[in-house]
């Protein structure tokens, strides 16, 4: 059943994509507030952008390499999950280390950690929504 040139399945995919975009924007807003507010005025937390970019890469590579037909766990997928976990934990640890070393203020650390939760939740949501091999998979892009 199509409604005005969009099928219902595509509408769900578009709504999910818009929601995830909104989540990413909110997360980046928290990161920028932790950097750019005049009270804090330190831009060291922007190094977390590297973690945001690096976090999905191991899982994407393992999905391309691994054949999903076997139900047994394999080393490539587990290594990808391990590396992704290490990247995510490092992204949460870096602002805390900056705050403990008094490079940034604790208020900036709280804003950056809030941004981390939102951004990594958005990345997880992207893979949950678009990770299956159905009509609107992320692998098409």
Spell out the blueprint of helices and strands.
Layout (H helix, E strand, L loop, with lengths): L1 E2 L2 E2 H29 L11 H7 L2 H9 L9 H26 L5 H25 L11
Antiparallel strand pairs: 1-2
Helix pairs in contact: 1-5, 2-4, 3-4, 4-5
Salient structural properties:
single chain; 141 residues; mainly alpha; 5 helices; flat; transmembrane
Describe the structure.
With 141 residues, this protein is mostly helical. The protein has five helices and two strands; from the N terminus they run E-E-H-H-H-H-H. The protein has helices spanning 8-36, 48-54, 57-65, 75-100, 106-130; strands at 2-3, 6-7. Strands 1-2 form a two-stranded antiparallel sheet. A hairpin with a 2-residue loop joins strand 1 (2-3) and strand 2. Helix 1 packs antiparallel against helix 5, helix 2 runs antiparallel to helix 4 (75-100) and helix 4 packs antiparallel against helix 5 (106-130). The mean pLDDT is 85.
**What gyration radius follows from the Cα positions, in whole Å?**
18 Å
Assembly form of the protein: single chain
Poorly predicted regions are none
Query: What structural category characterises the helix and strand content?
Result: mainly alpha
Strand order of the largest sheet: 1-2
Q: Mean pLDDT score, rounded?
A: 85
Following the backbone from N to C, one meets helices and strands in this order, namely EEHHHHH
What is the molecular shape?
A: flat
Share in helix: 55-70%
**Helical element count?**
5
From the N-terminal CA to the C-terminal CA, the straight-line distance is 25 Å
Number-wise, the strands total: 2
Largest sheet: 2 strands, antiparallel
**How much of the polypeptide forms β-strand, as a percent range?**
under 5%
């Amino acid at each position: 059943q199509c409604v005005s040139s969009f099928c219902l399945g595509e509408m769900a995919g578009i709504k999910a994509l818009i929601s995830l975009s909104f989540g990413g924007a909110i997360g980046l807003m928290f990161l920028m507030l932790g950097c750019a507010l005049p009270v804090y005025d330190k831009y060291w937390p922007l190094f977390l952008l590297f973690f945001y970019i690096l976090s999905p890469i191991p899982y994407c590579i393992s999905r391309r390499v691994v054949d999903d037909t076997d139900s047994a766990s394999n080393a490539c997928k587990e290594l990808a999950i391990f590396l992704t976990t290490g990247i995510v934990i490092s992204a949460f640890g870096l602002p805390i280390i900056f705050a403990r070393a008094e490079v940034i203020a604790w208020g900036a650390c709280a804003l950056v950690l809030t941004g981390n939760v939102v951004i990594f939740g958005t990345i997880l949501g992207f893979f949950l929504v678009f990770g299956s091999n159905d009509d609107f998979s992320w692998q098409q892009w």
